[in-house]
Design goal:
CATH superfamily: Spore Coat Polysaccharide Biosynthesis Protein SpsA, Chain A
Largest sheet: 6 strands, mixed
CATH class: Alpha Beta
Number of helices: 10
Helix content: 40-55%
Number of strands: 8
Structural class: alpha/beta
CATH topology: Spore Coat Polysaccharide Biosynthesis Protein SpsA, Chain A
Shape: globular
Order of helices and strands: EHEHEEHEEHEHHEHHHH
CATH architecture: Alpha-Beta Complex
Distance between the termini: 54 Å
Number of domains: 1
Radius of gyration: 20 Å
């Protein structure tokens, strides 16, 4: 095993921590200015020598035993290009927010956003990542998903029914840039069909997935607009109908829930 740490010239005490591992032969680290996450990940790809790879952000972490599990799954199944598992969301203090159990893998499920591949719980073949060109600068806010898609055009995947990582949620994450995520995700899907030759039968699921991403990341948008977009997504890809819980398609449901909470708080004497 090799652990590669790519640091962008941090000045916050990171180097003091890294120097503690100078005598650990498995650990290699560099700290130098870079243009951001895309360059850092691609540096890691260039340095890595192993057969199986994984990427972990500095604020997320693996659960015990899952590195061995991810490696074994890929070694035992040569047709698989990647595997991924469930994850647990935590807050800044490490407190659990929710357990996210993902649906099984299929390209239709991924493209329609019925499920997704978290970076924090994904293991993949390094050779496929390199053959696919690594992370692309042209879609910085969808770079990991973009790479998974290109790997999956050359191989297959499997979802492991195990909680594999904890993902920390905080206000400074890239998820707050909803407009950029929508922009890059849409470009990624366009490229997938125009440049990377995704099978045409997957297009309805992909077009529905774009609408689902717009609903997810258009913060503050009117509820009726999201309802209309959701209906269109279901028309494009009917299997979404069974995945989306019915209340999310009912106009006014959020207001109804808020009203019920206010009434409950009054009855219980809450502020």
């Amino acid at each position: 095993m090799e652990v590669l740490i790519i640091d962008g010239a941090s000045t916050d005490g990171t180097l003091d921590v890294l120097h503690q591992y100078d005598s650990v032969p498995e650990v290699t680290w560099i700290s130098e200015p870079d243009s951001g996450q895309i360059e850092a990940v691609n540096k890691g790809f260039a340095m890595a020598r192993g057969e199986i790879c994984a990427i972990q952000s500095s604020d997320d972490f693996y659960l015990p035993g899952v590195i061995k599990r991810g490696i074994q799954e890929l070694l035992n199944n040569p047709a698989l290009g990647l595997v991924f598992g469930d994850m647990i969301k935590i807050d800044v203090g490490g407190n659990e927010i929710m357990k996210e159990v993902l649906m099984p893998f299929s390209m239709e499920n991924i493209l329609s956003c019925k499920t997704w591949i978290p970076q924090c719980s994904c293991f993949f073949r390094l050779s496929l990542a390199k053959e696919s060109g690594g992370w692309r600068e042209s879609v910085p806010y969808a770079a990991d998903t973009d790479l998974w898609m290109r790997i999956l055009l050359k191989s297959s995947a499997r979802k492991i029914d195990v909680f594999m990582a904890k993902r920390r949620v905080h206000p400074e994450q890239r998820d707050v840039h909803g407009d950029r995520i929508i922009r890059d995700y849409t470009q990624m899907i366009k490229d997938l069909f125009e440049i990377f030759d995704a099978p045409s039968h997957l297009r309805p699921a992909a077009e529905a997935g774009i609408l689902m991403v717009k609903n997810r990341y258009n913060y503050g948008e009117e509820e009726k607009v999201k309802i209309q977009r959701l209906r269109k997504a279901i028309q494009l890809y009917p299997p979404l109908k069974n995945h989306i819980r019915f209340p999310s398609r009912v106009p006014g449901i959020d207001y109804a829930r808020a009203f019920i909470r206010r009434m409950r708080d009054k009855v219980l004497g809450a502020d």
